[in-house]
Amino acid sequence: MVRMTPAISIHVQPQEVAVAVGEDKTIEFYTLNNLPSPVDITLMRSDLFDATPHIFQLDNQTRSANIVITGLQITSHSVLEIEECNLTNPIGECPFNNIESAFVTVKVIHSKLLSIGVVLTGWIYFFAWSISFYPQIILNFTRKSVVGLNFDFLLLNIIGFICYAVYNVLMYFDPYIQEIYEHNHPHSLIPVLFNDVVFATHALLACLITAFQCFLYERGDQRISYTCWGLATVFGLFAGVMLMLTIMGIMNALHHIMGLSYIKMAVTMCKYFPQVKACYEKKIKLKFKVKSFRKVRQN
């Protein structure tokens, strides 16, 4: 009977650090496994930040080591990674099976205050876009009518946010897709945060509520145009073909959700035109009615 050697891994937390010039922040390298012997680890040096100590040892008594990162020069993206790893007694190869994933992305900023301002601006942007869906829902409810809301815009919005929500949810929660992404983009963090997931799912829910209102309230003679149905069909076929290729193993799941993100971008580029066109045509009709009314009064 062959005894399998258990996998030994090394971890680091946090994996993303923002530090001001001259400021210190502490990270931790650690392992949860028993080590066959002490392990010497050397970190790669950088001119953009300092990591102290850059050489440290892990053993069964000390399974973790704190490293102090000091910002030296402004950079939007740099990486602290392991340069060398060896067993010391007896001398041997590095026992860790995940050296490539044990890294920290380092951003050196001008000041902490400026960084806080950037984060606050991002959250204000998040809440502003989230709140922006409600005026239309409230207006529809109070009027008991959806007249004036362009159905082409609504359908394209739903398609876009379905794709966006699927992309964000799978990228954030699916370990298989995350593994593919990390393999294809070494030293890159997963490009989706939890607030991205919340925004995408909330936006989709708001659009579906608006669509439900279209079946309940007065809508006049408004219909989805043939052009919009054509675009929706193209997007649906594109997503369906990618899904089939993924199931057949011709492309992987990451390529599939990346394709969905391209649909979202295409929708964003064209979804506003139907509403703008409808508002413009309504303005022309209103002007025509006003002019006709004035002529009647003059006669």
From TrEMBL:
> Is Transmembrane included in the keywords of this UniProt record?
yes
Membrane-traversing stretches: 113-134, 146-167, 197-217, 229-251
Gene Ontology MF term list? L-cystine transmembrane transporter activity
Annotated InterPro entries: LC_transporter (IPR005282), PQ-loop_rpt (IPR006603)
SMART domains on file: CTNS (SM00679)
Give the UniProt subcellular location, in the record's own words. Answer: Lysosome membrane
Which keywords does the record carry? Lysosome, Membrane, Repeat, Transmembrane, Transmembrane helix, Transport
In the UniProt record, does the keyword Transport occur? yes
**Membrane topology qualifier:** Multi-pass membrane protein
Spell out the Pfam families in the cross-references.
PQ-loop
A Gene Ontology cellular component where this protein is annotated is: lysosomal membrane
Q: What is this enzyme's catalytic activity, as reactions?
A: L-cystine(out) + H(+)(out) = L-cystine(in) + H(+)(in)
The family classification in the record reads:
Belongs to the cystinosin family.
Which PANTHER family does this UniProt record tie to the protein? CYSTINOSIN
- Protein's recorded name: Cystinosin homolog
Question: What is the organism field in this record?
Answer: Elaeophora elaphi
